[in-house]
Amino acid sequence: MSKTASSHRENEIELQELVIEQLKLLLAGVRTSLSSLRAGILLLTLPISLVGLLIITSKYHTILKMTPLSELIFSISGLTLLTGIYLIVRALAQIRRYHVQIKRLEEQMRKSGPTR
What is the pLDDT of residue 116? Predict the structure, then answer.
């Protein structure tokens, strides 16, 4: 093999290693987004559980007697619900963006061709 062919092969290998490192970084971002998605789902379920608990224990209290407390509970539940929705939407958008970048890298690797 000539020096030029050897140098070309080394450049291809370096390019592939660089793309692999970029893919690892993107996949780490996807994992982070998935954990945000999981947290958002958790925040969605908390208000539902709380309302279920209030319904189950409704024979022991009335909402009219507990108006200030029920307003506080429902406002906190609403904020928790909105925060959960925000986290879910943001995580899904980030995951979609990461997948687009991963597809671009895959296309770039296909265009550069396999290593010999």
Answer: 46
Residue 77 and residue 99: Cα distance in Å, rounded?
Answer: 33
Paired tokens of 10: 């080394």
- Integer Cα distance of 17 and 14 in angstroms: 5
- 103 within some domain: yes
Domain-embedded: residue 52: yes
**Total domain count, the chain:** 1
Give the per-residue pLDDT at 111.
80
pLDDT for residue 5 is more than 90: no
Mean of pLDDT values over 74-99: 96
- Whether 44 is in a domain gets the answer yes
One-letter amino acid of 56: I
